[in-house]
Design a protein that fits this description.
By secondary structure, this protein is of the alpha/beta class. It has helices at about 25-45, 65-75, 100-110, 125-130, 135-145, 170-180, 195-205, 210-225, 245-250, 280-285, 300-315, 320-325, 335-340, 355-360, 360-370; strands spanning about 1-5, 5, 20, 50, 55-60, 80, 90-95, 115-120, 155-160, 185-190, 230-235, 235-240, 265-270, 270-275, 295-300, 325-330, 345, 350, 370. Helix 6 runs parallel beside helix 8.
Length: about 375
Amino acid sequence: MHFPFCAHRCHYCDFSVTRAAAPPVDRWVSAIERELAWWFERGGWDRGAVLDTIFVGGGTPSLMGSTGMEELGGRIAAWFRVDPVRTEWTAEANPASFDARLGARWRAAGVNRLSLGVQSLDDAVLTWLGRLHDRRRATEAVSEARTAGFERVSLDLMFGLPPDVARDLAAEADALVALDVSHMSLYGLSVEPRTPLAEWIRMGRVRPPDEDRYAAEYRLLSRRLRAAGYEHYEVSNFARPGERCRHNWSYWNRSSYLALGPSAHGFLPPIRSWNVFRWDRYERALLAGHGPLEGWERVGSAEEELERIWLDLRTDRGLAPELMEEFAGNGARPEDWIEAGWLEERERRWVATIEGWLRLDTIVAALAGAERR
């Protein structure tokens, strides 16, 4: 579920976000309920299925306030069953708008996993990113999450910033490890069109991110986190043993998932769909009875196979050797990738190394252009 409201838009963000110091939470929750009704009516689904996972992202869900998540949970319960033991329910929060009181209300509502958008533990970097919190607030938010009863806490960290931004990432990595959270996600900065960052680069005010810096920082973070006992289980994700994010794993496993809210993307195999991007148009469409969809596509068998290859290779599950060996020619030479150290064999599967994950697009593009044996 996408909560599309932020108090401030970061200059690198191209998400569906509406600036609002006091978001219309009631209207958003009502829109989510209308969308649920729309899906159930068209799908002919029975109510009461137990949800495996819920993920409330944004935007800034912590701007929902102390009662917003409770109200959302009540609306969901009219259509699905949320099991306090079986259902993994994650909610994102900005350290600037999260505290122990809010966390306690979320835990009471059923949220059992918290994702904090820390991005950096360097105040100068946070200022450059346009974040509303500083290092002290970020570390306090982690402590307050534990006070509220969250045993499962994930932190987001951004890397690969432009060369103009000085940073001691090794020191930040050590500070992150010291927080001893259960999960971390790394995000390399991407320059998206129609963002202030893209305009700054076009005007020459900021140099574009450097690929060499991106790769060096990715290697450094992976090395530090793995040395601290985290499993690097997916290109961008690290977890303590037993703490992998089940919700995201469903994406990589091509499981069915329903997407609610503006710009949300869902997958009910073989159909992939995406919602109206802007909040105001999304709400109007639902009020008019038109439904939330902006578009949809059917994933064909050839696309499905390549998608499975790409998704398997981006996790430590890896790929069955016999599947990759079906491809030949046009640059698809798995033996060369193994020799180069991009792939390695683990438990009779081919798994990408750190160097392979840095070149994942190259590997998959070669496979996509190959002929089948």
